[in-house]
# Entry
Amino acid sequence: MNENQLREVASHFAFSAEPVGFALCENGHINGTYFVTCADGRRYVMQQINTSIFTRPDEVMANIIGVTEFLKEKIAAAGGDPERETLTVVGTVEGGVAYVDPDEGYWRAYLCIEGATSHQSADAELFAKAARAFGNFQRQLADYPADTLCETIPNFHNTVSRMADFKAAVAADKAGRAAEVADEIAFAMAREGKCSFIMDGIADGSLPLRVTHNDTKLNNIMMDDVTGEGICVIDLDTVMPGSVLYDYGDAIRFGASSAAEDEVDLDKVYVRTDLFDAFTEGFIEGLGGSLTEAELRALPMGAWMMTFEVGIRFLGDYLNGDVYFRTHYPTHNLDRARNQFKLVADMEAKMPELEAIVGKYMK
# Structure
């Protein structure tokens, strides 16, 4: 968008002063994000929500408002800074929480969190700090009524449903690729019986329904530039009801792997137990005793489950002709699936070690 168009959108938000500068944020692959600088020096983040993915943006915003207002009360009561330690939604001049432009573009704005940076990669120390921040996020929201949140992407981490989608993709074989990936399909099918572990736990109450972030990558933590500690969890679009195993598991899947998720040399792909250990220690510390023993003991299974789930999603998309995930070459989704399945197999081989690491911090 050009500056005149951005200025028109910005005119609908109750910023502290007149906007005088706009800059595109290069990070992120879903929403269109811009930094807005106002005449008084304050900065804001203005985003156009991708309504192709978030088809019910009003529900997304309702979840975000509910969670951030709840967090602000908790942060203030603890003597913290609510404007730095959680997102602050900026309302519109019309009195709403979002602006819909003439082309049906759905816009929202946040106060910018100054003196903090998000990181794309981490060593063990930084990974542990991010883990504490995600654990603290869970602890602060432990008594939030999760069942009041909207499920903005239905069945997002319902691995049973994801497996059904995968089997449908195998049966349809829309791209004519099933024969060439018979081994990968067999690998996935052999593990179908484990897919219901989390859903069964939620159903029988052994895994409590909690507020979950559902995108616990390192770059969704703002780290204080002075202390280096995680101060704010951002990108709350996928905040929904679910299991803490989702958040822990996806963070391990992405952050404790030895390689990028599209690395094709599978000898380079394995679970780094040093990073698993660092994240587990920080996460459990941040949780402050807010989880049940059953949840804690199931954390390694959460890592397995989220990795397997992403693997079957990649492979299913490959079978469907690459219609969901953005790809950069013909076998990109297949390479991703093989990569995730290698991690799954390595987790299975190391499961006693991973369980022992969790047990160490439970004590």
The first helix runs from residue 3 to 10. The radius of gyration is 21 Å. The first strand starts at residue 19 and ends at 24.
